[in-house]
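Database export, one record per block. Field names are fixed; values are copied verbatim from the stored entry.
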Amino acid sequence: MKKALVVGASGGMGYALVHELLSRGIEVVAFSRGKEKLESLYKNLSNVTIFPGDALKQSELTRAANGVDVMFHSVSFPYSDWDETHLPCIDIMLDVARAQKAKVALVDNVYAYGRQSKEMVTEQTKKEPHTKKGKIRLEMENRLKKSDVPTLIVHMPDLYGPNCGNTILHETLKNVVKNNKANFVGSTTVGREYLYNLDGAKAMVELSLREETYDQNWNVPSTHPITGEELMTIIRDITGYKKAVRAVSTNMIRIIGIFSPFMREMVEMMYLTEQPVILSGEKYEKEINALPRTPYREGIEATINWMREKETN
């Protein structure tokens, strides 16, 4: 791979992918809505072309994809728009990739797995999503697999890390950094996975560089499952934060959803805070190498430092 397009480059995973690709000497086109955000992230970096555009406009994506070898799909749409956005976006990306003779690498979540009783979910686990969003993610996957474009599907748990706004853990960290009363979404006693975005990018780029990894699913788990209580112990130790933290339950989300479309859409995914999907990384470690596993303390400290630096700039 000599040149890559990162679609959704202004998001948490897009940001991590851009930096990982650059670290390997790969030229990057950073594509996303919002020129100002792209410039704030990448204007001082060499070997990056900033390309503001809309992933739902094929002409814009086509121009951005000129000469690229791999198109990374890390686009995030608002929950309320998923019905109208995700599947058209996949179709457009496949059309553009086909014309460019490029590959497509999808940053995927765990929604398509649905409810799981297994302790560890492998790539062979049957996908039976019971939520609207899970069914959309599965259809995205199926369209990639049915195409004649080489595709890579990488499942990751909830993210945290530099530039990871709009994530569950960010909801807690943003108030901790401001020393305001913080919320923690879901139970604080259930062990869940939070993947450091730079680790996810390392694993995904490694997969994207190998011919034999395409037309497969891959799981990239976190360092290990961790409870909210354990996370808060780490966060308090790093920051000296003293305030109480409120656990936000499904019922609370449902009530807030009366007034907030985003929260209303979030209700159906709250099952993951009580019955989390825990990914097995056995396939990756058997066929590729050891997974990157940044300790939570190290990753959270780096994230908080990044957030504080952005606040002062």
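Remark 1: The two ends are 34 Å apart (CA to CA).
Remark 2: The chain has a mean pLDDT of 95.
End of record.
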